[in-house]
Write a structure and sequence with these properties.
Length: 321
C-alpha cells in the first residue's frame, strides 16, 4: 500500500519522444524497443497512470537524447520549433501535471538562444535540456555562449543530460567489453564520463565568470562530481595554473538530481558537498520506473523539511512553479 508524502512530488528528468523527430535518427536513438518505446511516445493515459500510482504530481518533460542535438544546422531550427510547439500543446492539455524543458537547435547557437527565449516567454517552458555533444563538439566552446547568456538573462537552468559518447571514445574505452556489457557504454559508465567531462570543461571555459548567475543542472547525482569536487579543486589549485575555484563554482552554480540513482551514500555526499537546496527529485522515466524512486525517497535519512525541498520545494523555487 502506497502512502503519499505530505508535500507535492515534482519529477524533473522525465522523458518522452516526439515521433516526428525520431524519424531523423536510427538505432537506439530512434527506438529502445517494446515497453520503453510505448512509454516514451505516451503523453497521456499510461504516463499519468504510472505517475498516479506513486503520487508524482508533476513531470517536467524533456525529449530523450539526443533530442535535436544531432540535426544539421540548416534544418535544426525549424524542426526544433515544431518539437517545442508540440510539447507545449501537451503541457497546455494537462497544465497541472506537465511542465517542460525545451529542446534547442544547438547546431545554430544564436538561434538556439532565441528558441530558448521563445520557449520560456511564449510557451511557458522552465529551461532547456541539452544532450551530450552538439554534432561532435563540446558545449563549452565560445560559439555556444549565447545560449548561456540567454539562460542567465531569463533566469532559467540548462540541464546537461548524457547522450551516446563520442564514437572514438567508445571505440578506445569500451569496445572490447561492449558486446557482453552493452550498457557500460551508456548508463553503466560512458554517459557519466561524457557528461562529467562536459561539466568540468564548462567550468574551465570561464563562462561562469562572464555569467555568474548561470544555473546548470546535472542528473544522476551530478555524474560523480560532488564526490570528486574537492580533489578536482585541489588539483587545479596547484602552482602553475590559472587561479580559479572549481569547488565554489560547482557548489554555487550547479544543481543535481536523483535521476536513476537512488542511493543514500550518494545522496548524503551531495547534501554535504552542495547543500540540500541544490538537490532535486527526478526518476529518469521511462528508462527507470517510478516506484523505486519514490519508495526510496520516503525513507532517506533526512528531515521531512529537507525531503520536501528535494521532492518539490527546490523545483518550485528554481523553475518558478
Ligand atoms: Zn535521462
Amino acid at each position: 500500500m502506497f502512502t503519499k508524502p505530505a508535500c507535492p512530488i515534482i519529477a524533473i528528468e522525465e522523458h518522452y519522444w516526439d515521433p516526428e523527430l525520431t524519424k531523423h535518427y536510427t538505432g537506439v536513438e530512434a527506438s529502445r524497443g517494446g515497453d520503453t518505446d510505448k512509454r516514451l511516445f505516451d503523453l497521456g493515459e499510461l504516463r499519468l497512470k504510472e505517475m498516479d500510482e506513486v503520487g508524482i504530481d508533476v513531470q517536467v518533460l524533456s525529449h530523450g537524447a539526443p533530442a535535436t542535438q544531432k540535426l544539421p544546422a540548416d534544418s535544426a531550427v525549424e524542426i526544433t520549433r515544431g518539437v517545442n510547439d508540440r510539447l507545449a500543446k501537451v503541457c497546455a492539455a494537462n497544465p497541472t501535471r506537465f511542465a517542460a524543458f525545451a529542446a534547442l537547435p544547438t547546431a545554430n547557437p544564436e538561434a538556439a538562444a532565441d528558441e530558448l527565449e521563445r520557449a520560456v516567454t511564449m510557451l511557458g517552458f522552465k529551461g532547456a535540456m541539452i544532450h551530450g555533444m552538439a554534432n561532435g563538439e563540446f558545449l563549452d566552446l565560445k560559439k555556444f555562449w549565447p545560449i548561456y547568456a540567454r539562460a542567465e538573462k531569463l533566469d532559467v537552468p540548462i540541464y546537461f543530460h548524457p547522450s551516446l559518447p563520442n564514437a572514438q571514445v567508445t571505440e578506445i574505452y569500451y569496445q572490447d567489453y561492449a558486446k557482453d556489457f552493452p550498457l557500460v557504454v551508456r548508463p553503466g559508465w560512458g554517459y557519466t564520463v561524457e557528461t562529467a567531462t562536459q561539466a568540468i570543461r564548462l567550468v574551465l571555459s570561464g563562462v561562469f565568470e562572464k555569467h555568474p548567475k548561470l544555473k546548470i543542472m546535472l542528473g544522476h547525482f551530478g555524474e560523480t562530481l560532488p564526490f570528486l569536487s574537492w580533489r578536482i579543486d585541489a588539483s587545479l589549485k596547484r602552482p602553475g595554473q590559472k587561479p580559479m575555484s572549481f569547488r565554489d563554482i560547482f557548489s554555487n552554480n550547479f544543481y543535481v538530481t536523483t535521476s536513476g540513482f537512488f542511493s543514500n551514500p550518494a545522496l548524503l555526499c551531495c547534501v554535504m558537498e552542495m547543500g540540500v537546496d541544490h538537490i532535486l527529485f527526478a526518476v529518469d522515466w521511462p528508462f527507470v520506473m517510478n516506484p523505486p524512486a519514490v519508495n526510496w525517497m520516503k525513507d532517506v535519512p533526512l528531515s521531512d523539511g529537507d525531503k520536501a525541498k528535494i521532492l518539490s520545494g527546490n523545483a518550485q523555487r528554481l523553475l518558478k512553479m
